[in-house]
Amino acid sequence: MFVLRCCQRARVAHLLSMWTPREASTRATSICHHATHTYSTQALYMPPRPEENVIYSPLPPLELPEQDAHNIIFSRALKWSNKDAIECGITGRKYTYGNIVDQALRWAGVVSRVLAAPSSKRNRLTLFSVNAPEFPILLLGSLAAGATVSTVSPNYTADEVARQLIDNETDMLVTDPKLESILIDALTKIKKTIPIFVSGVSAHGHPNIRHILEDSSKPFAEPVQSPLKSTAVILYSSGTTGKPKGVELSHGAITSNLHMFTHPYFFPYLPTTQEYQESVIGVMPFYHVYGMHVVNLITLYLGAKVISLPAFTPQDFVRNIRDHKIRVLHTIPSILNFLCESPEVTSADLESVRVVLCAAAPVLPTTTEAFKKKAPNPILFQEGFGLTETLPSLITPMDDERIGWCGKCVPNTEIKIVDLETGKALPELQRGELCIRSPSLMTGYLNNPVATAETIDQDGFLHTGDVAVHKDGFVSIVDRIKELIKVKGYQVSPSELEDVLQQHPGVVDCAVVGVDDARSGEVPRAYIIRKDCNTTEEQVHEFMRHKVAKYKQLKGGIVFVDTLPRSSIGKILKKELKAIAP
Question: Could you tell me which of 186, 185, 95, 171 has the C-alpha nearest to residue 140?
């Protein structure tokens, strides 16, 4: 834990005051007023000229912040400078809000110098790391230097990392000691030399980030004021279909969503005061929009505390719930299932929990009821919906729990359910594609204007690829148009796995589908036309083990077939494949 000297603190406060827009002070007052949790809606909001069958938020539109992502967090952090911002749930290593600002601006100075080199062309930095308490320092500091930050899953193989580095054209890399060799292998594959910084002791002589952050001789950088339309982060998602694509999220998309999603009509954190501070567990991957935005940025925006865990392990997860008296539990269906079913999780372990916020994939009503029965106190169960491309857009209101529905629109957000053939907006309880329009939508897919145009229509609605129904302003996801496979909340692209499989010399053709799995929700299964009988299941599994992450492995099995069923235009009929058991 590092202490910021008084003179340094004054310097940071002075720097931040110089970059705070004139409107920020009045808006901060408005935000604090919202945080009292006394807001109520006697009548639902309806715009003056509503469009037919378009669903609006029950709240009127909010005036949105005009600060960029790092400066809005920095300016609010000054109110809570002595409170802990993030702590490792394993080692106890932690940083206060004052430390976050101090060390982020110190890191910004390093990033600025690296990106000023002639070899730097895109001003992009890539984080390849597990969840750690240094994450918000590195994220915010990189943004303060004017960089665009991209993230890579720590589960990726060198091949997968290489593909992403080719796409995002990064100029600087940050990693952990345990992942350093994978990153070096990836750079070897693409024949590139890119500056690497390691959060810890490097086995290859790369600079140690923790030493840099501790070095008080390193000067603070002055945080840049980024245009709201400029890209803050590039997060990878398979979108509504296809291979992983870089989702460009602007500073304005992030800061608008921070303000919209945290309205107390919807969001469950209690206000941060001198006497009270909310703590939440950060086990959701920080490279993912849930971990980066919902768990990290929103929590920091509200002055709460993140307990970071590098991975989900049952004992550590439950211990941190108990030790930190977690009141609001961020979770996904697979973790919720564990809490309900494991005999090692007792009612006493859940004594502090009052709110469960579940997202990433649909959860069964039976699971929510089982958790409510196991918890010793009344539980508000909130479901939410959002994509990397939309940021969180729907959430259950605080006073209107409906199990099986993923909530209502947050302020400044509109949705419609459209007919899959005509595109016409549908009335209540009719199935169609969920479309979302809000200030928090992505700018587009990196280097992919065609996919962007296919996803965001001319009216500004983003087509999610999810089949949904609506009633009374609530939305329920009932199916998926897209072929993505959701493995414990992770998105797995069938076409990506198919491309990898076809690199195997014994594979002539193949198709991958998702099949139901009690533990993971879904798992990938491959149907393969092989060259001859010498190609075995074991050989294919071994081939894939070195090519893709663990959660992308073909745990649904491998089925060798003579032909793949196709439509008249040659499209593989994957629904027919699912009927063929392994």
Answer: 95
